[in-house]
Every structure is written in structure tokens, then in C-alpha cells.
Specification:
This protein is an alpha+beta fold. Helices cover about 20% and strands about 40% of the residues. It is built from two helices and eleven strands, in the order αβββββββββββα. The radius of gyration is 24 Å and the shape is elongated.
Length: about 200
């Protein structure tokens, strides 16, 4: 019996170690990505690029609300104004949030988020990252732009990625229930073997 208890305790410990901390906050998250052509301020084509990240909402289930976090996870080469990634646009010291609306229904999700890290006319001039993701009929789709400070603001230092299509989908949840079930199965198997041996 003691061996069975040890096996059960080991299974629970392994589950706790692999499952990580439990997030009890009432929020839901979505991954986003969009791919499109990159141009500088003169319209010169610089190649294709992809922007990826994650949106964390302030509600669960169906409804309408706002994002509490918008993480930029990856940017094409040449987009440098954000610095180290991932970067939370809503954690910026002075974010300029123009739109921040997300609606989830049984039919799907509609979203419109637009923000800048700094407005270009602030003094002293700061590098600015412009970002938009939406699926509105007249919206931009996906839009990311770098506006660099002087002397790089002669358009050659700018980068713009714009596309009509952007995807937003649920973040896959960890297989916590599978791990829990495995732990219980191991515990039950240990009990069964003990009874068979007796």
C-alpha cells in the first residue's frame, strides 16, 4: 500500500511540474498573424514579411470587450522601433490607443485594434510603431509601420507592412486534463496491481 501511495504522489508531482502555474484570471487569448509586402516611405518594395503576436482579452465566453495586452512576438527584419520582442503595445508608457474592441459570438470574432507607441509630433521625437489589426469591412486588415527619428526619418528608415487579410484564432490550451488523467490512471493501475498481488 505504501508503494502505491508513493506512486500516486509521484504521479501528482509529475503533473504539477509539467502543467505549470494555473491561470485563474477571467481572460481569453488569441494568436494573430499577417503577411504582406514591405515598402519604405518612397514606395520601394523591400520584400515580404510577417507579423505575429497575441491578444489577451478582458472577458471570457461570448461578449464584447477590450484587449488588456497586445503582444508583438515577431516582426520582419528592419522593424527596429520596438526593440526587444515580445513587446506589449498596451504596456507602453504613453500608448495612443485609437480602437480597442473585440466581439465574440457563436458565429465568430470581430475585432478592431489600432495603437501607436508614440505620436510623431511629440518632442523630443521618439521612434514610433504604428499597428492595426481588424476584420472590419472597410478596415486595414493588418498594418505595421516603423517611423524612425531623425536623421533616419527621410523615409529610407521607415518600414511599412500592409495587407488586407489578417488571422486571429484561439491560443491552444495546454493538455492539462490529459496530464491529470494520466496521473489518475497511473495511480489506479498501481492500486490494481497491489490488489492482484494480495
Amino acid at each position: 500500500m505504501l508503494r502505491t501511495m508513493k506512486l500516486g504522489a509521484l504521479s501528482v508531482a509529475m503533473l504539477a511540474a509539467t502543467a505549470g502555474p494555473i491561470d485563474a484570471s477571467p481572460m481569453q487569448a488569441f494568436d494573430f498573424s499577417f503577411t504582406g509586402p514591405i515598402h519604405n516611405g518612397y514606395g520601394d518594395y523591400l520584400g515580404q514579411g510577417t507579423v505575429t503576436g497575441e491578444v489577451v482579452l478582458d472577458f471570457t465566453g461570448y461578449g464584447t470587450g477590450a484587449a488588456t495586452n497586445v503582444y508583438i512576438d515577431s516582426l520582419p527584419p528592419g522593424f527596429t522601433s520596438l526593440g526587444a520582442l515580445p513587446y506589449d503595445l498596451l504596456a507602453t508608457v504613453n500608448p495612443d490607443v485609437i480602437y480597442n474592441t473585440f466581439t465574440i459570438t457563436p458565429q465568430g470574432i470581430s475585432y478592431d485594434f489600432q495603437a501607436y507607441t508614440n505620436l510623431y509630433f511629440r518632442s523630443p521625437y521618439q521612434p514610433t510603431f504604428w499597428f492595426d489589426i481588424d476584420n472590419e469591412p472597410t478596415g486595414n486588415g493588418g498594418y505595421a509601420a516603423d517611423d524612425l527619428p531623425p536623421p533616419l526619418d527621410n523615409y529610407y528608415g521607415n518600414r511599412l507592412l500592409a495587407t488586407d487579410t489578417a488571422t486571429l484564432g484561439p491560443v491552444p490550451e495546454p493538455a492539462t486534463l490529459t496530464l491529470l488523467g494520466t496521473g489518475f490512471l497511473a495511480f489506479g493501475f498501481g492500486c490494481w496491481r497491489k490488489r492482484q498481488a494480495a
